[in-house]
Structure formats: structure tokens, C-alpha cells
Specification:
This protein is an alpha/beta fold and about 450 residues long. It contains 14 helices and 19 strands.
Length: about 450
């Protein structure tokens, strides 16, 4: 059977899709979602109403490509609104989260006319199914899911409803996943979760994220360890000190600010203010002077005035951030924010988003350009840009590097002499290919 799978949303969804493909590819072949397939698997996001709309569009597209194909919808939209999804024309199966066996069974089963639904009550879930995969198609960096769910109640977010309470993977199971990936040749892992900083709070033996990261680093299994998004209240000094002293933990933190105004942060139900976030980033920069520091920023939240946005723009301009992910606020049914008064008009949100992105692009350019002329270890990606013919890779501190002649070096760390920054990438010339131990010792100080 030919199967096509597509994924909307976060790294956790990408991880879940990789697990699905890993379990099916021994018996079936996979084709691009744009190709004719016998079965289409749509792994959905539901963080905004637009994400739901995108999922519905994908269902229609699948049926246009092959009217006779079976269509299976899974992910967060399927979990939160299974009845709505089941009513969509062309959907044969609806499978909620953490029901891999049902999903596999439905892929093999012929449709019976009536849409079949398999969704459990995620609020009753305890623990995380460990469904590690050895391969993540299209990625040189491998994701390791260590946590699921979220205990926060941000006013704009539906994810706790979709994913349930925060649950952690046992440390021994995390290390087993890391060992599998190391045995498969991966050089870098990204520890990921819905509420990553909440790791360990539910475990019998109290263990936090810092202790888990230390265990993985001390195991020596992986050359590069990277963390995905963290909330500001969950970046302790212990973690910063560990990162500063480690050869394998990448100096890169994505710490989600979401807004640069205290009144908006309060309306979002975030548990910090702008002064706390500013002081935190100052501590990060002091301990990790060459680190990439990123953030998510939402603009146009209900009630955000022109003055508040201008103040936020100035606030972010003065922070030592190196890149932004900027999102115009998009309403989501079932959240508190969807009921708030004074919505910001769409054209205003788009303009604010563009101005914030322009600021982020300038800060990224300034950060990256500061490393021109230095030698640095870069992990080469498997993809080559069709337009330029250049390979691509990332340094440990998340510098994007375009490389000439890197096609045969995929999934290898190479020493690169960095050149000018252009079109979002530092140009690099491969110097040497060194051993993993040598690479771990090559930092921004080697110039």
C-alpha cells in the first residue's frame, strides 16, 4: 500500500508522525502527500481556528488526489473535536492522541461506510507511551520526546485540553531512546515536549530537566544535545551552569516571552513579567556569551494598543535575543482569549507582525555576522539547496551555515571557516572533518 503522511504544528507532532511512519514502513511504501496514495494520514494541530481550517483543506486535497483513497485524521484536532472531524466529507477514520495501535489497525482496515472514531479521555492519561523511532525522515537532528501535556492555563492556548496534564518519560526510557539514535548514527538530539520545563514533576523519584540533561551528557552517547522551547520560569541557574561547563550541550535556548508588555502578559495568564524576563536573559548572556537565544512573540493580542505594541517593540529591541518566531494572534474556540473584548483588526496585526519580524531579522543578522571569520563546528544537513547548490548545516550555537561541496558530508560535523552573512545564512568553507571528540572541543573561541 502507498501511504502519504503530512504534519501540521509542533515538533511533538513531527515526532509522532515519524513514529507512525517507522511502524508502517516495513509493510508499506511512503510517497509525498502531493502524490497519489492509497491512504492519507493527516496529523493535525489545533492551536488556532486557522490550524483546524488547514486540516480540513488537507482532507479535501487528499480526496482530490485520489477519490478512492482512505483518509485518516489524527493529532490534536482529532483529539479535541472528534465529532466535528468525523462529519467532514471524505474522512474514514478519526484517531486521537496516544492510540497508535488503533491507528495502525485502521490503516490496514477497509472503510465500512461509516466513519470510525477512536479517541480516549486524555485527562485520565498518566505516563507517556514510549514510542521511540530510529529515523526521522528529512531531519539530521533527531527529536526525543521526554514529556507530554501541560499544567499551565495560558488564556490563548487549547493544548492542555488536547494533550492533558504534564507527564514525563522515565529517565531510563529516555536514555534507551538516545542509545537507539546513537546506534543509528545520529550526532544530535533535540529534547522536546509540550511543557519541557515541567519534566519530572510527576515522577516518583523527583528529577528535573537539568538532572536529566546531565545524565544524558554524562552517558557520552550523543555528540550534541539541544533543548527545545522553555518557559521563562523554568531556566534555573543550575541549567545555565551545566550548559556552560558541558562540551555536548548546545549553547542555544529558546525561551518564550510571548509579549513585551506586563498588562498583556497578565491577560495571557503568563507567570512572569517583563522585568523577570529581561533579568533572565541577562543571566543567560552572562553565562553563555555565544549562545543563540530565541523567543516566540505574539502580536495583536486582544486589547493590545498601539502604544503597548510600540513599547513592546522597543523592549525586544533592547533584549539580547538573536531571533524571533512571530505570530499574529489567532483566536481559538474554547479558550479564554477568544472571549476577550477589543480584538485587534487583522490588517493591524499583520503590520505589527511584519515590524516585529523585521526587528528579529536585524537581530539575527547582527548575531550571525559577528562570527564571520571564525572557525566553528557545523553539523551538515542532508539537504542541498536546489537554487544555489549549497549544502546547509548548523553550528552548536544554532548559526545557519551554507556550505559549498557538503553533499557527501551529510550528518557529519565539519570544521568550517565562516564568511559573510547573506540571505539568512552564513557562507562557510569546509576546513576539516574531525572526530566527534575533536568537534566537541571546537567552540567560538577557536578563531
Amino acid at each position: 500500500m502507498k501511504i502519504a503522511i503530512t504534519t501540521l504544528g509542533c515538533k511533538i507532532n513531527q515526532y509522532d508522525s515519524a513514529v507512525i511512519q517507522n511502524r508502517l514502513e516495513a509493510q508499506h511504501s511512503f510517497v509525498p502527500f502531493e502524490a497519489a496514495a492509497d491512504c492519507y494520514v493527516i496529523n493535525t494541530c489545533t492551536v488556532t481556528d486557522r490550524a483546524d481550517w488547514q486540516a480540513r483543506q488537507l482532507v479535501r486535497r487528499a480526496k482530490r488526489m485520489n477519490p478512492g483513497a482512505r483518509v485518516l485524521v489524527t493529532g490534536c484536532y482529532a483529539q479535541v473535536s472528534p465529532e466535528e472531524v468525523a462529519r467532514l466529507e471524505g474522512v474514514d477514520y478519526v484517531v486521537g492522541l496516544n492510540r497508535l495501535d488503533d491507528l495502525l489497525r485502521f490503516v490496514e482496515a477497509a472503510p465500512i461506510g461509516e466513519t470510525q472514531v477512536a479517541v480516549s479521555d486524555v485527562k485520565r492519561e498518566r505516563g507517556v507511551p514510549v514510542l521511540g523511532t530510529r529515523a526521522l525522515p528529512g531531519h539530521t537532528r533527531a527529536f526525543v520526546k521526554i514529556q507530554e501535556g501541560c499544567n499551565y492555563s495560558c488564556s490563548y492556548c487549547i493544548i492542555p485540553t488536547a494533550r492533558g496534564l504534564s507527564r514525563s518519560v522515565m529517565p531510563r526510557q529516555v536514555l534507551a531512546q538516545v542509545r537507539q539514535l546513537a546506534d543509528s548514527g545520529y550526532q544530535e538530539i533535540v529534547l522536546t515536549g509540550i511543557h519541557l520545563g515541567g519534566y519530572g514533576q510527576d515522577l516518583p523519584a523527583k528529577l528535573d530537566l537539568t538532572a536529566l540533561v546531565e545524565q544524558i551528557a554524562e552517558s557520552g552517547l550523543m555528540s550534541r544535545i539541544r533543548l527545545s522551547s522553555l518557559d521563562p520560569r523554568e531556566v534555573p541557574d543550575r541549567l545555565l551552569d551545566l550548559m556552560a561547563s558541558s562540551d555536548s550541550i548546545c549553547p542555544h535556548l529558546h525561551i518564550c516571552a510571548q509579549a513585551g508588555d506586563d498588562a498583556i502578559l497578565k491577560a495571557m495568564r503568563r507567570n512572569y513579567d517583563t522585568a523577570y524576563y529581561r533579568d533572565l536573559l541577562a543571566r543567560v548572556r552572562q553565562r553563555l556569551p555565544d549562545a543563540a537565544i530565541g523567543s516566540d512573540v505574539i502580536v495583536g493580542f486582544p486589547g493590545e494598543s498601539d502604544g503597548q505594541f510600540e513599547a513592546s517593540l522597543k523592549y525586544f529591541d533592547h533584549l539580547p535575543l538573536t531571533y524571533f518566531h512571530v505570530f499574529p494572534y489567532s483566536s481559538r474556540r474554547g479558550t479564554v482569549a477568544a472571549t476577550l473584548p477589543h480584538p485587534v483588526p487583522t490588517p493591524v496585526k499583520k503590520l505589527r507582525a511584519q515590524r516585529m519580524r523585521d526587528l528579529g531579522a536585524r537581530k539575527k543578522q547582527e548575531f550571525c555576522a559577528g562570527f564571520a571569520g571564525q572557525r566553528m563546528a557545523v553539523l551538515v544537513e542532508g539537504r542541498v539547496d536546489k537554487t544555489t547548490g549549497l549544502g546547509r548545516g548548523f553550528s552548536r550555537n544554532y548559526l545557519p551555515v551554507a556550505l559549498a561541496g557538503a553533499g557527501v558530508l551529510a550528518n557529519r560535523e565539519v570544521t568550517v571557516r565562516l564568511g559573510e552573512y547573506r540571505s539568512g545564512w552564513l557562507r562557510g568553507i569546509v576546513d576539516t572533518v574531525e572526530t566527534p571528540a575533536d568537534q566537541r572541543n571546537l567552540t567560538a573561541t577557536d578563531r
